[in-house]
Amino acid sequence: MPVTVEEIKTHLRIEHNAEDGYLSALIAAAQAAAEDFCRRSFAEDMPEPVRLAIYLYVGFMYTYREGADQSSYRAMKQAFDALLWPHRDPEQIL
Q1: Residue 43: what pLDDT?
Q2: For residue 25, what are the CA distances in angstroms to 19, 57, 69, 70, 90?
Q3: How many CB atoms lie within 10 A of CB 48?
Q4: By the 8 A CB rule, do 84 and 34 touch?
Q5: Per residue in 27-57, pLDDT tens?
Q6: How buried is residue 59: exposed, middle or buried, by Cβ count under 10 Å (0-12/13-18/19+)?
Q7: For residue 34, how many other CB atoms are within 10 A of its CB?
Q8: What is the dihedral of CA 62, 67, 69, 71, to 10 degrees?
Q9: What are the C-alpha distances in Å from 54 to residues 7, 26, 91?
Q10: pTM for this structure?
């Protein structure tokens, strides 16, 4: 099951609907990044670490939408990759 806007809003403690479209776009970008990294689709069956990686990505991009320093981005990306690493499809990795 994909991550929903309502789940992300709860995670980020957002109580309004003004940015639902933006959050949907961030979720789509995060899921695409996760699927690209893992070389597989998570449309049907999404393991919990993949969901957490999407929460992490969306939370970072939402919080730092005005800009972030490189070290903060690298730390987020390291955690994102670590959560996803066990879910990579070894047959699709070059």
Answers
A1: 82
A2: 10, 12, 22, 22, 28
A3: 8
A4: yes
A5: 999 999 999 999 999 988 899 999 999 999 9
A6: middle
A7: 25
A8: 30
A9: 11, 9, 23
A10: 0.90
3 in the Ramachandran plot: left (φ > 0), alpha (ψ -120 to 50) or beta?
A: beta
**For 24, left (φ over 0), alpha (ψ -120 to 50), or beta?**
alpha
pLDDT(94) > 70: no
Is the pLDDT score of 92 beyond 90? Answer: no
Residue 79 pLDDT class (50, 70, 90 cuts): very high
CA gap 3, 6 in Å, rounded: 8
Contacts with 40 (C-beta within 8 Å, 6 or more apart), sequence order: 87, 88, 89, 92
